[in-house]
Amino acid sequence: MPRRRPVAEKPHVSDPVLQFLQMVWQLEHALERASKRMEDALGISGPQRFALRMIGVRPGITAGELAMVLHLHPSTVTGIVQRLEIRRLVKRTSNANDGRVAHLHLTPAGAKANKPAATGTIERAARVTLTRCPAPQRKATASVMERFATELMKI
Hints:
- 61% of the residues lie in helices and 8% in strands.
- The chain is mostly helical and 155 residues long.
- It has one domain (16-153): Arc Repressor Mutant, subunit A.
- The chain has a 3-stranded antiparallel beta sheet.
- A hairpin with a 7-residue loop joins strand 2 (90-94) and strand 3 (102-106).
């Protein structure tokens, strides 16, 4: 039987900025790991599922609009949409007035996959977390996250 390594304690950091960054990096790492587990278990990564859910909320959204909503580079969204198309979860329809613009829609399989998942998704973890936090705490957290993102965009 393999020996388990002892779990290392988080070193105490007194600087609040370093504490905050430690939490941000922990969150980023947890998101990446959860996304990989989702892809292994469900065949769809976290960003792909988020894109699928947003297309479900906004049928006909363009790839450019989706990039803005997801806060991702358009080329990243192109790859995400292509993988969703390969899995036949999303289809593109051409804009009648401008053939360069495509609108994104869920296929029947995409609509089925678009339902809130009971377990195994980042979305579910977020839903559980948010239901366990009082509204003022959610609002304060969102405010801090938004301010930090704004500051990061200035770099």
